[in-house]
Amino acid sequence: MISKALKYIYRLLKQVCHGETDDAGPKEERLLFTFGGRSEGWPGLGRTLYTNEPYFKAAIESCNRIIKKNGGVDILSYFEAPIEANYYRGEENFICITAIQIATVQLYNENGIFPNAVLGLSLGEPSAVFAAGALTVEETIKVILSGMEIHKKADKNYIFLFFKLGMAEGVQLCKKCPVWSEVVYEESSDSLIIVCNQDDIIQFKSFTDAQQIKFKPVTTITNFPYHTSLISLYYHAWENFANIIEPKPLKCDYYSSAIGKCIPKNTLLDNIHWFNIIVKPVLHDTVLRLVLKEGYESVLQIGPPAVSDRQWNQLDPNHRLKIFDTFQLGCVSEISHLNFNLGELKAKIFKPTFLNEKPKAVLTDILKSFDIHAIDLHDQLTYLKKNGEIHFLPLHNSWMVLGYDKTDYILKNPDLFSSSAYNQIDKVLMGADPESHKMVRELLQPLFSSQTIAEVSRKTLNVAETLLDPLFALDQFDLVKDFSDPLSQIIICDFMGFTPSEGLEVRNVLGRDYHNGNFFQRLEQYFNNDFELADHQGDDNFVGKIKKAQENGQLTRADATSLLRLILSAGIATTSTVVGTVLNNLNKTPELTAQIQGNDQLLAKYVEECLRLETPAHYVRRITTQPVEISAQHLPAGAHIYINLRSANRDADHFVNPTVFSIDRPAKRNLVFGSGIHQCIGMGISRAEVRSATQVALTRLEQLNGYTWEAPEYFKDSEVQAMITLKLKRSGN
């Protein structure tokens, strides 16, 4: 508060001297840190600061120890030995740039200067995220070293070419080119860099000449094809480094040139982001336009200018950015330049940022907008669990419980944690509490016998073959809508005892897009008005059992309708999603398919690992029946709780390396289908159906591998993260 008051007084004095007034009081500005990559301006920078600034020197020495520990080169010679003009010719020495960026950020932070946002360009992206508080020093260094690991293995016979073309024109040129080429750098709206193999340059030039398009080499030195899809070939060389990074929330906005957009604060970056910054082109112009549109007042360039004055002016000649360069090219005294910058920056009043707040403030802000229905929350859940096993979610006015032990405890204590939260869906079984639940469970349990499960497995094999084989005559199809959905619908209708005509009617009622929110109501209307229980005899199937229970007075017609609707929808949505998930995983793990083919034991482990890592149900809900305490948090009676199954099944206290897919994992009970008296009654049938569908797919791998698989899409705002599309397109079409 005192420093801000002094800033205000300083500003008032300046205004008085210049005859200005500011009736609105001190204006808070926003400060952007920028981080560039490889550039000609780096040689020599930081050396005099290392000599004269103890804090900077200590930070560099700390980085050096971490670099050497992780297999990198000793960088102290850059600062202590005579300057080498060609120091940055060696790829292994570029880690020195990262060390200087890290030390510079720490130096400015030590003097109270923190960013409201960061911008990363190419090699500077990891340092930008470090400045945003989402990477540690060691993690930042490991990300850079992982790229250098790729450099060791990659072909370095690629040449970089400068074109006066817009991004769309450049992409189209590469698509039409008879030899491989890709855009790697978008410099401005009408200039970019394209890379191609040196061996193809004659053919490439013939093609561009025919198009009357000119280019010039950026340099005569060839290199590896960074920022292109070819780097994907070296994923395994990279992942050993980056997979040990622990995702943490961004404490300020982050402009990423790899994806060309702003990633908002509180986002947790998954590890694949660090691979994407190597394989995707640098969208320099796109991301700078976003920055200017956002209206930042000040920019601190960490290192030589990541963006030149010419580039800022070219984008907007009228911009009002106050630009500070941490290092001024040709400046004799880096310490004097540092002190000048600090004086200017400290005279400004910048908007608050989480970077100089306590971690609790970040956690509170994340929870404020946390949406339990969001897709792919794994990293967020891991972060939240490290900060406690129970959190209040204002968006849902409910508590969320994380971790295996607490989840298992709540599910096994229905007297304390009622299932009545599900009464609107089904109060007969799913929402029933112990006594009434016990009666219905005992009534239905015989239908889910081992003999029934074996029969479901056999029928699934036949139906899966019938559905899958005709699809291979098509150039494209949807593995969900054309396979897993109809498969699960046919099997569950058969299990329930519907006649073929009734099964067809039910499938028509559901429709192909049955996740649209009102299918539950459609089913209720159908079972109430159009379906006749009286037509079903015997009690050896679900419908017959329900009919007999109604005749005996054990169930009302409303109860019967609720159970029919519940078992049908659960048997379709959950099972279809799991089938899609397992098949999609087969496509992503080709190295495992040979192991599990023909091995039922390994196949079962494979399915369980898919279930554990991609648990179809995000959570289950409960309501406290009396005041309770969970992890030292007091909850009153009537408190609503979301018990997060995905967090439980990735709990590091119960599963070694929980994010790693492994069919060698020791057998340990997961909580995919819940626990306690409400454990899913149909889990045996679901597992059998998924295994059989996978067996059939394994025998058709050659056909499936002839297609390009798109990323699946999921339905949001549901307890089940239901896969709704998984499109395949024949390769080459």
CATH architecture verdict of the largest domain = Orthogonal Bundle
Q: Do you know the CATH topology of the largest domain? A: Cytochrome p450
Taken together, the total number of domains comes to 3
Strand order of the largest sheet: 9-8-3-2-10-11
Low-confidence segments: 1-6
- CATH C-level class of the largest domain is Mainly Alpha
Mean pLDDT: 89
Helices, by number, come to: 29
Quick summary:
The protein is of the alpha/beta class and 733 residues long. 46% of the residues lie in helices and 13% in strands.
Topology (SSEs and partners):
Elements: H1 2-17, E1 28-29, E2 31-35, H2 47-52, H3 54-69, H4 76-80, H5 95-110, E3 117-120, H6 125-131, H7 137-153, E4 158-163, H8 167-176, E5 181-188, E6 191-197, H9 201-210, E7 215-217, H10 235-242, E8 253-256, E9 261-263, H11 272-279, H12 284-294, E10 298-302, H13 309-315, E11 322-325, H14 334-346, E12 349-350, H15 359-368, H16 378-386, E13 390-393, E14 398-401, H17 404-411, E15 417-418, H18 434-444, H19 450-468, E16 476-478, H20 480-496, H21 500-510, H22 519-529, H23 542-551, H24 557-588, H25 590-596, H26 600-613, E17 619-624, E18 628-630, E19 633-635, E20 640-644, H27 645-649, H28 683-698, H29 701-704, E21 707-709, E22 713-714, E23 723-725, E24 727-730
Parallel strand pairs: 1-12, 2-3, 2-10, 3-8, 10-11, 14-20
Antiparallel strand pairs: 4-6, 4-7, 5-6, 8-9, 13-14, 15-17, 16-24, 17-20, 18-19, 21-24, 22-23
What does this structure look like?
With 733 residues, the protein is an alpha/beta fold. It has 3 domains: 26-151 and 240-355, Malonyl-Coenzyme A Acyl Carrier Protein, domain 2, CATH 3.40.366.10; 155-223, Alpha-Beta Plaits (2-Layer Sandwich), CATH 3.30.70.250; 392-730, Cytochrome p450 (Orthogonal Bundle). The protein has 29 helices and 24 strands. The strands form 7 sheets. Strands 9-8-3-2-10-11 form a 6-stranded mixed β-sheet. A hairpin with a 4-residue loop joins strand 13 and strand 14 (398-401). It is globular and about 95 Å long. 42% of the residues are buried.
